[in-house]
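Q: For a teaching session next week I want to show students how multiple molecules come together into a single three-dimensional assembly. I've collected the sequence lines for a complex. Could you give me the predicted structure tokens for the whole thing so I can convert them for display?
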Amino acid sequence: MSKLLRRALKISIVPAILLIAGKFIGILCTSIIYNLNFQISNDLNGLFSVQIYYPDASTTLFVNSISNLVMVLFVALPLAYFIIKTTLYHTIAHNPRTIVKMTRFNMLKWITAKDTSFLTMFIWCAFLWIASGVTIAHTLQGSTYPWVGIVAGSLALIASLFTIKTFEIETDNIYPTEHKYY
Amino acid sequence: MPSQKAQKFKKVLSLVVEPIALGALALLFIIPTITVMNLSPITKKLQELNVLGANTQSTMSVTLVGGKHEVFTEENLNKDTDTTYSYSTKLNKRAADSYSKPVVEIKNNTDKAQKISFYGQTLNQTQSNIRIIADEKSYKIQDDKGQTFTQEITIAPSSKVVIFLSIENLTGIQFSEEFDMQIKVVENL
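A: Of course. Below is the structure for the complete assembly, covering every listed component.
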């Protein structure tokens, strides 16, 4: 088995679990905090038979919106951490002022090559696309608030831009541009 | 030689494992997507559950008593809605007299008293007095002039009442006729 495939498998497990956990915790916490009645029952119409039911449409809309937002944030926050870490890691090489600032904020531990690879960012970004895609689909179906769909779409777009930037930095390391030779 | 064999085995194994790993990677993306989509809540009227998880939703039940009678034949009871039933029977030709038969049994399985209304009539005017009898009380449904009356009875919680249909005519009736009656759960008290 290739090293790349093995690494991809290893990296994919955590965001996959977080995606499901985010949705589930979102539903559970919203129901507990707002004391909402819900029922878990069997419905043979879906791919999986287990379904969560709420008594009225407004409650369903509210719970679905919040759980979708929690799901997106569960994937987006670790990705944001990777983006910041990668940006800092690549910036310190050219900018000594960043090192000074990081020392002042006691963040020198962040300057490591760990979790700054394009593969990690790409996989996490792919899971954010999935989470955002599901949220946007629900928004278009009218089962999620529009602002949740907009937030999810914006986060996916920003994360994609940073992932592309990481890809450019990594390709730049492999195939340096001409001016770096001189 | 043994190392060559081991290398060959490793090569074959990697050829087998690689597609499986690719499939596993694809599944790692597909399964969460389907799960998340399926976890999305939907709206449905929730069932009332008691502490043991058994359904305690209780209803009224109306059942046909049945049996044979020379005047009341071809009885039929249909449930139109959750609260409305329609009863029909054929009233055969008969001599001047009073006849009665138990027609329906109404059970109140709820924990509240229920008010039930009855409204019935024959298609033709037959100069017969038609009544229902419940708990030995008589309620007029249609008088001999053809006028109809809506009657209401109250059924106590967790009890049942057998409704009798009674017909009285002072002259002999030489033809059959249809009688229809609507039984409706009006409200719980």
